[in-house]
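Re: your question about Sodium:calcium antiporter

S., sorry for the slow reply, the queue was backed up all week. Below is exactly what I fed in.
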Amino acid sequence: MTVVGVGGYVVLGFVSMVLLVLAAEVVVQRVVRVAKYYGVSEAVIGLTVVSLGTSLPEIAAHVVASSQILLGVGDPRILSATVLGGNIGSDVVQQTLLLGLVVLLVGGFRFSNKFLLRGYAPMIGTTLLTLLLAWDRTLTRVDGMILLTFFTSYTYALYTTRSDILQQQGTSPPSTAPRRDTVVSAVGLLIVLLAAHFLFRSVGFFVARTGLEGSLIGVVVLGVGSASPEMVTAIVGLREGAEGLSLGTLIGSNITNPLLGIGLGSLLSTYHVPRPLVYWDLPMETVTASILLVYLLTKDDIGVMLGTIAERFERHTLQARFETIEERHLGRVGAALLIVLYFVYLLVRVSYFPEDF
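Result:
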């Protein structure tokens, strides 16, 4: 590794990050305007079009890895572990760290029933389905077909019942030239993906020689790197006042990644599933998402219960606060807990699940 090589990758990483931010800002602006022009909810756009676009790095990684497995290039176990670890790692990052950051920056967010039922619940179901199919430590072509079938069905159902999932957000006016804005957003999204690709290459240059297992490199490095488009798109969405697009992108990507990414890769070549993904990563992802969903759906009831307890101890001020807790509202405390949860997940992963097979 030469000094010139290191410097070159540092410059590549910096330029890639700048392009990533600028291009993502253009994409979000144009997509929001086009969505408003056609009267489509920003959350629906985030759950489908943008989430599919920002998931292209994961999808492309599966196609490349599966092609190499079919051609006999490289160890199929290492290829499987790395690409699966990157996919699941990206989902965990988005579901905990990035979701927490988005809500924390907004100051709190109210989830509608429609969003929870059509976005968040399918995300949990997707993770659980992937876990069940991978439990025997292999993902076959039949498993891949099942995942792809669920992805097609979900996308069709979402578009055929595409009433507002979240209230329209933001102050951007509807587009006056939707075709032009669509083309500009498509070009911008391509730049986002290319920038993310080169950013990931620069990161991988410095960590590829650590000697870590394939799935751990995937979870820690590929997961964070491949989640960068969703991260930037979500943050820029907040700047535009389009919280619905931000949340829709994160949740939609967590549905697209396993169903389309892992489904396509499994269909092409089959995968060897590393032990940590079955016994820690996927279960942790499923449990944490389920806990948050139950919390959001029952928060109002919990507030009433806590208010009753506070009343018995004559803590009337505390009682009033508990009783006015807004149902399905995730505040700064809940968002901070999601962020802490990610680092706890990562610490346990590195400490107790270092080996793949």
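The longest helix spans residues 275-312. The domain at 14-351 is CATH 1.20.1420.30 (A middle domain of Talin 1).

Happy to talk it through on Thursday.
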